[in-house]
Each structure stands twice: as C-alpha cells, then as structure tokens.
Protein 1
Amino acid sequence: MDHHIGRTAAEFAAQEVAEWVASAPINRRSPGENLLWWKLGCDYRTGPRGSYIVMYDSMRAWLVSAAKHDAEARKLLCGIIASKLYSGVPLSEGEGWFAASVLDGTAPSLPKRRGRSLSENHERDVFIVSMLATLVDDFGITATRNDVSPRISACDLIAEAFASCGRHEVTYRAVKDVWTNKKFRILYDSLAAAVNGELAKRREKQEKGIMNALSPSYPHHLSKN
C-alpha cells in the first residue's frame, strides 16, 4: 500500500472517529438513522435561534420519499425538520409537505418493528461498518489482516483512531468482529445500497455536462443546506 495513501486514510479515520466519539453521547441515533446520517452528509450549523441539521441538498427529495415507508429515514427527517423549526430556518418545500402530512395524520403508516431490541453498541457498529466500507472502497485498503501481518488494515486504522480518543475497548478484534458479522451487515446493506445508488445517479448527472463541471459550485451533490 502506498505510504501517502495510508497516511491520508489514517488521518481521515482519526478525524471521523473523533467527531463521532464527541457527538455520540449527546446525539443518540438508531443504527439505521446513524447510517443515513453518515451517508447523507448530515452536520450541524448555527441558525438565528440555535443549531440545526444540514445534509446533502441533492438528497433531500430522496429522504422525503424514503421517510414515507422507512422508519429510520422518517426519524432522521423529523429530526432535521424539528431542528430547523427550533432554530428559525425555513423548511424546503418537501420538508414542509412532509411535516404537514405528519401533523394532519395523512402520512403513511410505518410497518411495525419485530425482533429483539438492539444493543447499545449497534449505533457504534453501524458507524464502524460505514467507516470500513469507505476506507476499503475509497482508499483501497484491505479491511482485515492475518494476526501476524503488519498493522495496516482498515480495522487497524479504526481501532487506533478509537484508542486515540480514549476508547481502548474498541480493539482491532472488536472492529474485525463487527465487519465479519454477516447478519449485522445484511440488516443495513440494503439501506446503504439505496443511498449509494442515489448518490451515484446524482454524481453521474452532474458530471455529464462540461458547463456544469466548470461551475463554481461544482459538484452540487456535495452542497449542504
């Protein structure tokens, strides 16, 4: 693996893990909501009366549509809408429509959840799976390694980043166990695939036109509002 890529990946992992550790005790999110938060580029900005949640603007219509039938998408969208209302930031047309449908009772009913309740580590584990996938896909780093191999896998980078934040219980073995837990990953792969597919469509559409590529605001799919 190229040394520069490895250093860049390590810096990326350290930054993302530090931000997650700092926000996790305050902003508890369900596993699916946490995955959407990560994929949709959610973050906080300061409005006239306080903080509110922003996301990739080009994915807003997708989230509104997904919130009609998916509980995790609905919870996140409701959180975004509430944060804007509290902070005095105008809602988008789609957000306003959805808020009105919830208030007047016309929003579609969600299917009831079944199965056991999730452990307190599920939120963390969804974050770990998302981070691992990013390191593997975007940086070309091997997810795991043999026990005798040099410590340069994505699992190592994430474990080291957690240790730097004082979370020494998130060891290489703990991270690897999350990654190799097929049942856990299947629960969220379909949701991640849906978001990734929509993001890919947005990128492809944006990259088709030379004029768009030369626009000062390129790429639009990364703008947040």
Protein 2
Amino acid sequence: MGQRKRHRRPVRRRIALATIASGALVVTATLLTAGQTMSAFTDQAMLNLGTDGVGAHPFDIVSVLPGEQVAEALPGQGVAVPISGDDGFVPGRTITVDLGVANNTPDLAAAVTVTVKPSDPGGTGQVGSSPNITPFLRVTVVDTTTGALLVGGSATDPTQGAPVASASGVIGRLAPRGAPALADGSTWVPGNAGSRHDLTITLFYVDTPDTAAYNNGRSALEVEFDGTSTP
C-alpha cells in the first residue's frame, strides 16, 4: 500500500525567565526550563503499511543552553541558567540571554516560533505581591544564525523592543537533525546544517517617571519555543 501522510503534532519547550526583580538597584534572575504535561512528544508518521508493518517517527525540539548543554523539557523540572547583567537591571538598562533551539528529530523538519510571555497563572507577569514591572519591559529577539530580527523594531536598539504582550516571532524551518537524537543534559553535538538556530534575547526596562513607584518590582516571564513537523 502507499504511504500515508504524516500527522502534524506541535511540541512546545518553555524557558522561564523566573522572578526577574528590579527596583532597588538589584536584580535576582534565573533562567529555568519547564515542561508541558507530557515528556514524550510524537509526530505519528505512518509508513510502509502492509508486510513491513507500521512505523512511527519521534518528533522533538530541544533548547541548547549556554555552555552547550541540551535541555529537553520534562514535567516539573528545570535547569537554572545565569542571565548576563541581571545584577544591574534598573530602568534604562538591559539584560540579555543567548539560547539555542534545535530540531532533535533525525528525519523530520520543524517549523518553529518563539514567544516571550508571562509565566504566571494569571498571564500578567505578577510575582507574589511585588510591583509588576512587566508593562515596562521591551523585548528584542535576534536570530544570530541568520541575522534576522524576530521580535522588536531594531536589532541594535533595545529601546525599540516589543511589549511583552506582542513579543512573538517566526524562527522558521529547522532542518532534520540527520543524526541520532540527543539526550536531555548531554553536551551538544552538531547535526545537519540548519537544524539549529541561536537566538539573543534582550529585555529593556523602560526609564519613565512611572517606574519610580516600582522599586523592588518583578516580572515572571518565559521563552516558549513552539515547533510543528513540516516537510
């Protein structure tokens, strides 16, 4: 019999910018990977129906953290990563983190988007009773692999970043890995050209008179990679 079409199934990988604190001229910030409710994601590619049986190809995307460590989201688990400049994140300043996103699937391509958004249950960026500085943050995301500006109005001027409410962009097609999938926590090993893209994510804290009332403010944010198999 002939080959059936592949069923497209999304995969999300979340990187949480957890409790970014500012205001009192000091910031404590950590970067965490967090998972969805499932740790196994499969794009059911039904092949060779008949005497050869039925096969299914796993579909997966992973984050590549600073230090070239592979991070695959698992339920209730995270990986802490330092954010450069977090000790001086005050109005008028920026903090930056570099992250990779890679297709971990040997023979299926991935269409991937990136979104920076609130990670709290209410979707506002609120952290406890702290003043919420989320409305004063501007986001820029640059794909350093291609040079493309994915989020924001300028690759070099963080003051032109997008508000958190609209901080989403299309990374595009990641080629199949073309090699065995990497395990969570392993050291990155390159696959096919185009199967990994590297991003620089910049948060700018707007300097306005209003921010004077937000000393010791915080924002709970996450970076979400959303991937779907594609030809």
Protein 3
Amino acid sequence: MPEQGNPETARRRKVIGIWFWSLVLLSVATWVLIPRLPTQGVCYFRDIWFLKALWHQNITIYDQFINLRPSNSQQCVFFATRSMLSLYFGTFACAIVIYSPKGKPPAPKAWIRIALITVFLIGQQIFFDGFGDGSRGYSYRAYDSINSLIFKSTIRMFLFYFFLTFWLLVALGWRRNRVRGDESESREALPQGSDNATKPPFTHPLTSGPPTP
C-alpha cells in the first residue's frame, strides 16, 4: 500500500502534529508567564541541579552568566525558561521517535557527514560556547537582553534535538532491519535444517501393509 494512503501513517503524522502544536503553545506560554511568576518558585531552576540540568548548557554557562551580575530575578528567569523549553523539545523528540512512520533509514554514506556535524555541534556547545562580544550574531553577548539570550538558546536547542532525533531514528531503523534480517534467515534455514525434511511420511501401524523384503 502506498505510504500516503496508509491510514496508520496518516494517524502517526496526525499525532506528531498534535504534539508539535501543543508544545509550541506551551513554549510561548512558558516564555511569557515565567517572568510573571513568583521569583522564589522560578529560582528552583537555578538552585536545584536537576532542574537546571534539563538543558545541558545551563551547567556549562552558569559561572559566566552569574559573573555578569544580572539581577536575581533575571538569573532565575533565564535558567527556568531554558530548562522548560528544553523539556518541551525533548518531549517532542520522543514523540517523533515513537510515532514516526516506519521507513528506510538514511543512506550510510550520509552518516559520516552528519556524525561529524553532530560531534562538532555538541562539542562546541559543551566546551567552547559561551559569552563573547564577537561579531557573530548568534553568539551570547554580555549586553544581550534576557529574551535575546533565550532566543539564541532556542536555536541551539533546535539543532541539538534535531540531531539527537536523527540518530535515534537511525538506531531504531538499523535495529528493525536487523531483526527482520534475522527472521528471514530463520525462515530460510528452517526447511533445510528441520528434521521433518528428512523423516519418511507417517503411516499408521494398523493400516500399513507388511514390510517388503
């Protein structure tokens, strides 16, 4: 059956669409509402390691950001919004992996290039990304507003979770194809290796004739 006419494929895409738009609305609401929430509650995302680590760059950029001397409220809004947006991105990535229509994995020739991009992206985010007054517009800058810093963080989250989702889908596709290959080999080996292929046909002792000399 063609993929476009497959009702299961259509259902999966509909579910992914529902997840996408729901998380978009949640992201916008979170960005707008967190600055208006009580600071004490919002600061949990700065002071509790697990909540702060929902976005890995909160850990690597923490000292730099604190040394910029933003207000207590700005610090908490910065970490809380990034952590919540990262949680939404991660949730959507899981929804894509679970409900993505089953298809062929990408060609292996493309894996090397994408693997290099992935390693460079994650390595750059963890070890080299941070505040600087360079000319690059996507760099974090000391004079950026909190909303500008969060927007630049969102670009990084998109790239990070895009490549994470890609590799999860590749791993699942590889696993699925391997299981199918093992099942096909088992079915092909059964007629040749089965004992039933060498046994004579069964005859009942009461209906069988006398043995031939």
